[in-house]
Design a protein that fits this description.
- The chain is an alpha/beta fold and 313 residues long.
- The chain folds into 2 domains: 193 residues, Rossmann fold, CATH 3.40.50.720; 87 residues, UDP-galactose 4-epimerase, domain 1.
- Helices cover 40% and strands 18% of the residues.
- The longest helix has 21 residues.
- The two termini are 37 Å apart.
């Protein structure tokens, strides 16, 4: 089938593009390269440099006529969404609506929408958190991701557009851009490889840092493969159901690098949740998906990639 990936030159989207190609699909990528890189793309990918908010997107849909749209394009920084809520809404809502309008017009069979299990539930009192828990988002980013899910339900009801929502935990791995909370692994690795002390953010009463569910990008890719044919009109958590504090994460990376560098201390940022961990048993039952990589194994591969990238510079 032909699959159009928005944000496909980015960290996660480019890995998904690679997997779809290897599975024998035709892959088209639309990306404005605001955070992605064309260097991440396999030469077999047909690439369009295009902002998803613009009317020119319709020309790409008309020409390519994709069977499936995998929507990874997004403004992904929680702190930035709070500092500039209009920008977040323009990309994560108006951009999505533009994509969905084109999906309906050009008879797309299914949309795979990337949401945020790591932010959408807010400070949940169900822990680990299931998809049945009522989301109470505490950041503009999370609010708009939840709104995006509701738009998908509307388009399914009104136009029969099939969809699957993947609510990612905190994804890490090769090609990750070192910015924002989502990039904490890459931030730690890049700083430590340069023998610099990164900042470890924490609430005063929780000095070990925030609790997160870190899922390796190769596991996330497998969920995107499964969602091509399974999980119609439903929502799935994609996480490990393993809690890791920021300090534990830092110590794991430090140990694998063989370094002895104390981190700097920093206060929690706007929108930082105290804890987040996802129950992904529904994804196992209905998508046949569960994580394979441990945190340690994922970090080992990530460090190897960042070392190789540094040597090329």
């Amino acid at each position: 089938m032909k699959i159009l990936i928005t944000g496909g030159a980015g960290f996660i989207g480019s890995h998904v593009a690679d997997a779809y190609l290897e599975a024998g699909h035709q892959v088209v990528v639309v990306d404005d390269l605001s955070s992605g890189s064309q260097d991440n793309l396999d030469p077999r990918v047909k690439f369009y440099r295009q902002d998803i908010r613009e009317s020119a997107l319709a020309e790409i849909f008309a020409q390519e006529k994709p069977d499936v749209v995998n929507h990874h394009a997004a403004q992904v920084s929680v702190p930035r969404s709070i500092e500039d809520p209009l920008l977040d809404a323009r990309i994560n809502l108006l951009g999505l609506i533009n994509v969905l309008e084109n999906c309906v017009k050009h008879n797309v069979k299914k949309v795979i929408f990337i949401s945020s299990g790591g932010a959408i539930y807010g400070e949940a009192d169900e822990y680990p958190t299931t998809e049945n828990y009522l989301p109470l988002p505490l950041s503009v980013y999370a609010i708009n991701k939840l709104a995006g899910e509701n738009y998908l339900r509307f388009y399914a009801h009104q136009y029969g557009l099939n969809y699957a929502v993947l609510r990612y935990a905190n994804v890490f791995g090769p090609r990750q851009v070192a910015q924002g909370e989502a990039g904490v692994v890459s931030i730690f690795v890049e700083k430590l490889l340069a023998d610099e002390a990164p900042a470890l953010y924490a609430y005063p009463d929780e000095p070990e840092g925030m609790i997160r569910d870190y899922v390796y990008v190769k596991d996330v890719v497998r969920a995107n493969l499964a969602a091509l044919t399974k999980g119609g009109n439903d929502v799935f958590n994609i996480g490990t159901c393993v809690e890791t504090t920021t300090s534990q994460l830092y110590r794991t990376i430090l140990w694998q690098l063989g370094k002895d560098i104390l981190p700097q201390s920093g206060p929690a940022r706007k929108g930082d949740l105290r804890r987040s961990m996802l129950d992904s048993s529904k994804a196992f039952a209905e998508l046949g998906w569960s994580p394979i990589y441990s945190l340690e194994d994922g970090i080992r591969e990530t460090i190897a990639w960042f070392r190789a990238a540094k040597e090329k510079q």
